[in-house]
Amino acid sequence: QVQLRESGGGLVQTGGSLRLSCAASGRTFSSKGMGWFRQAPGKEREFVAAISWSGISTRYADSVKGRFTISRDNAGNTVYLQMNSLKPEDTAVYYCAARPSAIATTLLDDYDSWGQGTQVTVSS
Question: Confidence class of residue 49 from pLDDT cuts 50, 70 and 90?
Answer without folding.
Answer: very high
